[in-house]
Amino acid sequence: MNQLREKFQSSPIYARFAPLFIFCILTTAGFLLGDDWKFWLYVLKVFVGAWLVWEMRPFVAEMRWAVSWEAVVIGVGVFVIWVGLDPYYPMNNLMFKDTKESLWNPFERFGAGSSLAWTLICIRIAGMTLVVPPLEEVFYRSFLYRYFVRINFLEMPLSRFHPTSFIVTSALFGFTHYEWLAGILCGMAYQWLVLRKNRLGDAMTAHAITNFLLGVWVVWRGGSAWKFF
To answer: What is the mean pLDDT of residues 51-64?
Structure first.
């Protein structure tokens, strides 16, 4: 633990890159192992992710939640775009399995009335609402966006607009999702928030709102909506 903190303190890049990388490794492992591993490793990665956020917080000054009307509007708007655009463009089948339903459906595995299934779903929604936003926003909107412009990225204000980096970072964010087009628009919207407010917290809040609404939508709609998980 002390070694991790020392690395976070000594390297601003490591503090912003390593946590998301570890989180993604656990995600990949869950789906590669398959069967019930995808559920248990998701639970593990939520708790590991929460621990990483806690450990990196003292060394990533911009990772502070902030609430604004713009964050709420963007958060809800991105959710509408994510769901609304879904039927109208091909998905990212190069990086993700082509499926109409999610591989991660605890109701299907443990039963619709299962308390274990509901516990897993609550943990997942909590993770995508409270853990994923700070990890991804710190990496994409704070670190990567600025690093493409300046190696000494901390010297670049969060409010500085750079068109190439804006497009490239949003595209990279989009193509790490099955819903790549919605992901690109999402990345642009969150980056716009950072530029407008000159801080990361509003984008974290917007991201959290979007993910929470997606989680609720999946549970409420069921059926083909499970693919959003």
So the answer is: 95
